[in-house]
Amino acid sequence: MKKFLAVFDGFKLSETTLNYGIQLTKVNDAHLIGVFLDEFIYRDYNLYHILLNNDKPEVLVKELNAKDQKKRDDAVEVFNKTCKNAGINYSVHRDKSVALQELLHESMFADLILINEEETFARIKENAPTTFIKDLLGDVQCPVVVLPNNFENIDNIVILYDGSPSSLHAIKMFSYLFGNLAHLPIEVISVIDSHEKGKEVPDALLLKECMQLRFKNVTYTVHRGNPNEKIIEALINHKANRLVVLGAYRRTDLSRWFKMSMADLLIEELSTPLFIAHNK
């Protein structure tokens, strides 16, 4: 049985993550684990403000900590009740140490992570992709589905292929994890850089053989131009209820500061689930 991790902030439970988690768990007859990253230093109130503006801050802090605990407990209860009503196999992990490190560690034992693109596990809000998401994608040990804020039942798949080992690894990992979606319409999109005249899709025959052995309803689309621009143009015109599959190389901390990855770009520009798998 496959092990899927649905990752939650107990202070702001993502209904999208819960809904997609249940849908994909049902389709694959998997076991869904709700991972609640209850980091011990993460509070839903401003501790500095309280210490600065109250004569007896310890009393107020105790009350607020109790409220925080109830919020987190209530979120777990919502997860449990929803999964039970959906009739899926599920359990809960409540990790109380450093959120990112806890999740990276859990990823070694998981088949898939599902997480909302706006998760920060901090009081400060960030635009997607957040620092937490970027750091997770840089070091995670299993495929990740990064989710938008809106939920749509997935009924078509788009695979991005550029001939790299990373893109092929993503195709294989997707087929291993989601073989029960093999009947859905699948479009493979490739982009030939306009600066490379005469170039064609790398290993096109081998790609088609690989796809035919895994999926039933596959079409192929080739664009010419700037890869980043053409992929965004192609995907913006697609239906919202798709899942986009792509590979991604691991990058150093320094490169994350200076170069936006395709995954970062798609998270920023689109509102669609992204299946992202690293080439180890």
Structure description:
The protein has 280 residues and is an alpha/beta fold. It folds into 2 domains: 3-147, HUPs (Rossmann fold, 3-Layer(aba) Sandwich), CATH 3.40.50; 156-278, Rossmann fold (3-Layer(aba) Sandwich), CATH 3.40.50.620. Helix content is 41%, strand content 21%. The chain has a 10-stranded mixed sheet with strand order 3-2-1-4-5-10-9-6-7-8, sandwiched between helices. Helix 7 (204-212) links the parallel strand 7 (186-192) and strand 8 (218-224). Mean pLDDT is 89; it is low at 251-259.
The assembly state of the depicted protein chains is single chain
Poorly predicted ranges: 251-259
Structural class assignment: alpha/beta
Number of domains: 2
Approximate shape: elongated
The N- to C-terminal Cα distance equals 23 Å
CATH superfamily of the largest domain: HUPs
Proportion of β residues? 15-25%
Task: Please give the order of strands in the largest beta sheet.
Answer: 3-2-1-4-5-10-9-6-7-8
Radius of gyration: 20 Å
Task: Give the mean pLDDT.
Answer: 89
Percent of residues in helices comes to 40-55%
Please give the CATH architecture of the largest domain: 3-Layer(aba) Sandwich
Q: The CATH topology of the largest domain, please?
A: Rossmann fold
